[in-house]
Amino acid sequence: MKIINTAIPSVKILEPVVFHDERGFFTEAFRDNWFRSNVADVTFVQDNLVRSKRGVLRGMHYQMEQSQGKLIKVTEGEVFDVVIDLRQASDTYGHWLGVTLSAQNKRQLWVPEGFAHGYLALSTHTNLDYRCTNYYHPESEVAIKWDDSDLAIAWPLETNQKPLLSVKDACAIPFQLAPKFKC
């Protein structure tokens, strides 16, 4: 597995070694001891699988209690995956990072605790699989507006394209009003 550093140092892109032959391919998608030694010493407690159709935008979500680190990969299709640093003591506080993840590039994105996360589905059908370091805690979940002008996230939307949003995402709050992490 190759680690690709990003503009936000604690967020990492993981690129697996893929072995191809006439039968197909093989890759090691996750190894606990390698991940703990090279990326983050965390324990994953919950796996989630999400299917979205093209144009669905999910995010920007996080939990104030039971904050979650996430290891994200796409098993079908392609997404533009976005994280926002909400750690007030960080040099990259308030910065966002966008990465294309796809079944074809097999890249994974490590997002530590203290970040909001979301993505835009770019394919007809997209399956996104992510591991979490803590359990879902809906009572403390926060959603930041996906199109907040203070963040100016460059979503790869076509001209005049409106994303498909849940009620929660359509009613999300501005970045300036969202609770932040002190660490």
Automatic annotation (TrEMBL):
Organism domain of life: Bacteria
A molecular-function term among this protein's GO annotations: dTDP-4-dehydrorhamnose 3,5-epimerase activity
EC class of the enzyme, as a word: isomerase
S-adenosyl-L-methionine as UniProt keyword: no
Pathway in which the depicted protein is active: Carbohydrate biosynthesis; dTDP-L-rhamnose biosynthesis
Reaction catalysed by this enzyme: dTDP-4-dehydro-6-deoxy-alpha-D-glucose = dTDP-4-dehydro-beta-L-rhamnose
Signal peptide as annotated in the record: none
Keyword field: Isomerase
Enzyme Commission number(s) of this protein: 5.1.3.13
Cross-referenced SUPFAM superfamilies: RmlC-like cupins
Family per record: Belongs to the dTDP-4-dehydrorhamnose 3,5-epimerase family.
Quaternary structure, from the entry: Homodimer.
Function: Catalyzes the epimerization of the C3' and C5'positions of dTDP-6-deoxy-D-xylo-4-hexulose, forming dTDP-6-deoxy-L-lyxo-4-hexulose.
Protein name: dTDP-4-dehydrorhamnose 3,5-epimerase
Native source organism of the sequence: Simiduia curdlanivorans
Native organism taxonomy: Bacteria, Pseudomonadati, Pseudomonadota, Gammaproteobacteria, Cellvibrionales
Gene coding for it: rfbC
